[in-house]
Specification:
globular; 2 domains; 470 residues; mainly alpha; three-stranded antiparallel β-sheet
Length: 470
């Protein structure tokens, strides 16, 4: 009995001591838990208080010094971040990043991405890609090869099926992009899907759609102003008209003789004949182009809708891998697969989703093409003419997308996303004005200048909304 009473007294003293310590605030807040009132003295002596990246609260962190092992920023002191996290072990090292070096790397990646996305469809301008499915398949083959290269460089043995969804969404958008290029000018198409891409991407981050972490905004109203100017830019671009051009060759090959910089088509008697029944099954050389069934106004309306639809798919293609990056720690603890906070580790899975979707679409079309009543306007061009242009376009796109992942890691979405989604519009319109001569006339030039002004204001507002004016 005496022993029991002694044990109870000791236990009571222990509980009282723990309560006193907790009241004093030494162990009141555990590692990684938020501080409600910024009471930094409530952190353990082995911890420090800091505001984690992307968070709107201050947390107690372990406070490991430079070179210490970590699984995230919450393991490192306030002046350090957790970098070079391995997808295999989930471990990295606390390090002090050089701001000059990171910014230089990020802005270089942004520049490469802008040029690549604004130019990767140039090979498709000298040939007619038909419905775009064969062209897209050869393009996706090059993209998959680039994904293999990134996977080997990263040494990541894991595959992320959910990241495939982003690639599949992009491929659906690309399916709409090729016919959009045939219906409107290259610059207009790139501008339209760039604008809708930016608006939907902004909404995903601003409101936290699809489960991704909602980004904190310092000046909320500036964010809405930026989106409004982006919408105005898209509307203005829709009034840019493609200059008149000679009729394409009837077999869809688009063979052009350059005369003084302007194209004159190599025509035949078939090209001058009235359009055939679109449901009539004819030989490839007799099939008409889709432009032969639509007026100029109908071409502009349909091309605008397809380009905006493509931009919507493009705008959400980063969301699946972004969600995995946000939840990499929790997901890695739940299963055998090791997730990563580095976007490059999801490149191969993303690109594989593109390849699978392109293959499924091509197989489905090949089956439908055997049906007698398939409209001839959906025919494919001779695939042997599309292999090299498609592969070159795929390499260009892969370079741009990989650069985008790098830019996100070094600059963040708030800077890279507005520039990369809208920058290709400038590059694309420059090609249309100076190389292809598709956009001509003072009216079009004024509209382009106004649209680019709106888009530049939109991108600037987005940056200030995130970082404030200080």
């Amino acid at each position: 009995t005496v022993s029991v009473l002694y044990w109870m007294r000791s236990s009571l003293w222990t509980v009282a001591a723990l309560a006193a310590v907790a009241t004093a605030g030494v162990w009141a807040v555990g590692c990684g838990e938020p501080l409600q009132h910024l009471d930094t003295d409530k952190c353990n002596v082995a911890q420090c208080s800091r505001r984690l990246t992307g968070a709107d609260q201050t947390y107690c962190v372990r406070g490991r010094d430079e070179g210490g092992q970590c699984r995230g920023d919450s393991d490192c002191y306030i002046h350090l971040s957790c970098g070079n996290i391995s997808a295999m072990s989930g471990l990295g090292r606390c390090e002090k990043a050089s701001g000059v070096k990171v910014q230089w790397k990020g802005y270089l990646a942004v520049g490469i991405a802008v040029v690549a996305f604004g130019s990767n469809f140039i090979p498709a301008r000298r040939i007619d890609p038909g419905n775009g499915l064969y062209f897209q398949f050869f393009m996706s083959t090059a993209i998959l090869c680039a994904g293999f290269g990134v996977q080997m460089y990263r040494g990541n043995a894991f595959f992320y099926p959910y990241a495939m969804l982003g690639g599949m969404l992009w491929c659906l958008g690309n399916t709409l992009a090729v016919p959009a290029l045939k219906l409107v000018s290259m610059g207009l198409a790139v501008a339209l899907w760039g604008g809708s891409n930016m608006m939907l991407g902004w909404a995903s981050g601003h409101f936290g759609f699809w489960g991704i972490t909602k980004e904190a905004v310092k000046v909320n109203w500036i964010s809405y102003v930026g989106v409004a100017f982006s919408a105005l830019g898209v509307i203005t671009m829709a009034f840019v008209k493609k200059s008149s051009e000679p009729r394409r060759h009837a077999n869809g090959l688009g063979l052009m003789d350059e005369v003084g910089g302007y194209g004159t088509s190599v025509t035949s008697s078939v090209a001058d004949a009235p359009p055939s029944n679109p449901f009539e099954r004819v030989e490839l050389g007799e099939k008409e182009d889709i432009n032969d069934y639509l007026s100029k106004k109908q071409q502009r309306v349909l091309g605008t809708c397809l380009a905006i639809g493509a931009g919507c798919f493009f705008g959400v293609n980063f969301d699946p891998p972004t969600l995995l990056m946000d939840e990499f720690g929790e997901r890695s603890r739940r299963g055998m697969t090791k997730y990563s906070p580095d976007g490059l580790d999801y490149v191969f899975s993303h690109f594989f989703g593109i390849f699978v979707t392109a293959l499924v679409e091509l197989v489905a079309f090949s089956g439908l093409d055997s049906v007698a009543y398939l409209p001839t306007i959906f025919t494919a061009a001779p695939y042997q003419d599309l292999i090299v242009p498609g592969f070159i376009s795929g390499v260009g796109w892969a370079i741009g997308q990989i650069s985008w992942f790098i830019a996100n890691d070094n600059l963040g979405l708030v800077i890279s996303f507005p520039i990369i989604t809208l920058g290709p519009s400038i590059v694309g319109c420059a090609w249309s004005v100076f190389l292809f001569r598709e956009i001509r006339g003072a009216r079009n030039y004024i509209l382009l200048a106004v649209a680019f002004l709106f888009l530049a204001i939109s991108a600037t507002c987005t940056v200030f909304a995130k970082n404030g004016f200080s």
